[in-house]
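Weekly structure sync, notes
Attendees: PL (lead), two postdocs, one rotation student
Agenda item 3: pending single-chain targets
PL asked that the sequence for the first pending target be pasted directly into the notes so everyone works from the same version. It is reproduced below exactly as submitted, 93 residues in total.
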Amino acid sequence: GSFGTDTAITREQIAVILYRVSGYYDLSAEENTGRLISDYADGSKVSDYAREGMQFCLDNGLLPGADGMLMPGDNASRAQFATIVYNISKRAQ
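Predicted structure, written out during the meeting:
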Protein backbone atom coordinates (compact mmCIF):
# COMPACT_ATOMS: atom_id res chain seq x y z
CA GLY A 1 0.00 0.00 0.00
CA SER A 2 3.03 2.28 -0.19
CA PHE A 3 4.97 3.53 -3.20
CA GLY A 4 8.17 3.61 -1.18
CA THR A 5 9.64 6.85 -2.50
CA ASP A 6 12.15 6.95 0.36
CA THR A 7 12.97 3.24 0.12
CA ALA A 8 16.19 2.04 -1.50
CA ILE A 9 15.92 -0.07 -4.64
CA THR A 10 17.69 -3.41 -4.93
CA ARG A 11 19.51 -4.77 -7.94
CA GLU A 12 16.90 -7.50 -8.41
CA GLN A 13 14.10 -4.91 -8.31
CA ILE A 14 15.92 -2.99 -11.04
CA ALA A 15 16.13 -6.21 -13.06
CA VAL A 16 12.37 -6.71 -12.80
CA ILE A 17 11.71 -3.10 -13.84
CA LEU A 18 13.99 -3.43 -16.86
CA TYR A 19 12.42 -6.75 -17.85
CA ARG A 20 8.92 -5.24 -17.72
CA VAL A 21 9.99 -2.16 -19.66
CA SER A 22 11.45 -4.43 -22.33
CA GLY A 23 7.88 -5.24 -23.35
CA TYR A 24 7.57 -1.66 -24.59
CA TYR A 25 11.10 -0.97 -25.79
CA ASP A 26 13.67 -3.20 -27.42
CA LEU A 27 16.37 -3.49 -24.78
CA SER A 28 17.96 -6.59 -26.21
CA ALA A 29 21.63 -6.66 -26.99
CA GLU A 30 22.91 -7.61 -30.41
CA GLU A 31 24.44 -10.72 -28.88
CA ASN A 32 23.35 -12.77 -25.86
CA THR A 33 26.03 -12.88 -23.17
CA GLY A 34 25.39 -16.56 -22.41
CA ARG A 35 25.66 -15.99 -18.63
CA LEU A 36 23.23 -17.78 -16.33
CA ILE A 37 22.11 -16.88 -12.84
CA SER A 38 23.60 -20.16 -11.68
CA ASP A 39 27.03 -19.04 -12.95
CA TYR A 40 27.24 -16.65 -10.00
CA ALA A 41 28.14 -17.67 -6.46
CA ASP A 42 25.08 -15.89 -5.06
CA GLY A 43 22.70 -16.85 -7.86
CA SER A 44 20.56 -18.84 -5.42
CA LYS A 45 19.86 -15.59 -3.54
CA VAL A 46 17.85 -14.14 -6.44
CA SER A 47 14.21 -14.01 -5.33
CA ASP A 48 11.73 -16.16 -7.23
CA TYR A 49 9.81 -13.11 -8.47
CA ALA A 50 13.02 -11.63 -9.90
CA ARG A 51 14.60 -14.68 -11.59
CA GLU A 52 13.13 -14.05 -15.04
CA GLY A 53 14.04 -10.35 -14.90
CA MET A 54 17.55 -11.03 -13.67
CA GLN A 55 18.14 -13.61 -16.40
CA PHE A 56 16.86 -11.13 -19.01
CA CYS A 57 19.31 -8.52 -17.72
CA LEU A 58 22.18 -10.99 -17.78
CA ASP A 59 21.29 -12.11 -21.31
CA ASN A 60 21.36 -8.54 -22.52
CA GLY A 61 24.25 -7.13 -20.51
CA LEU A 62 22.02 -4.69 -18.65
CA LEU A 63 22.94 -5.53 -15.07
CA PRO A 64 26.25 -7.34 -14.95
CA GLY A 65 27.61 -8.91 -11.83
CA ALA A 66 31.02 -8.22 -10.33
CA ASP A 67 33.65 -10.55 -8.92
CA GLY A 68 31.45 -13.59 -9.58
CA MET A 69 28.53 -12.10 -7.65
CA LEU A 70 25.11 -10.74 -8.72
CA MET A 71 24.39 -9.04 -5.39
CA PRO A 72 20.61 -9.26 -5.99
CA GLY A 73 19.60 -7.94 -2.57
CA ASP A 74 22.15 -5.14 -2.48
CA ASN A 75 20.86 -1.62 -2.81
CA ALA A 76 21.69 0.26 -5.97
CA SER A 77 22.71 3.87 -5.84
CA ARG A 78 20.94 6.49 -7.89
CA ALA A 79 24.13 6.84 -9.90
CA GLN A 80 24.16 3.12 -10.75
CA PHE A 81 20.52 3.20 -11.78
CA ALA A 82 21.05 6.40 -13.80
CA THR A 83 23.95 4.74 -15.65
CA ILE A 84 21.78 1.73 -16.51
CA VAL A 85 18.96 3.95 -17.79
CA TYR A 86 21.42 6.06 -19.80
CA ASN A 87 22.95 2.98 -21.43
CA ILE A 88 19.49 1.64 -22.29
CA SER A 89 18.41 4.95 -23.78
CA LYS A 90 21.47 4.94 -26.06
CA ARG A 91 20.64 1.39 -27.18
CA ALA A 92 16.96 2.18 -27.82
CA GLN A 93 17.70 5.05 -30.22
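Discussion points:
- The helical segments are 11-21, 51-59, 78-92.
- The first strand starts at residue 9 and ends at 10.
Action: rotation student to compare against the earlier draft before next sync.
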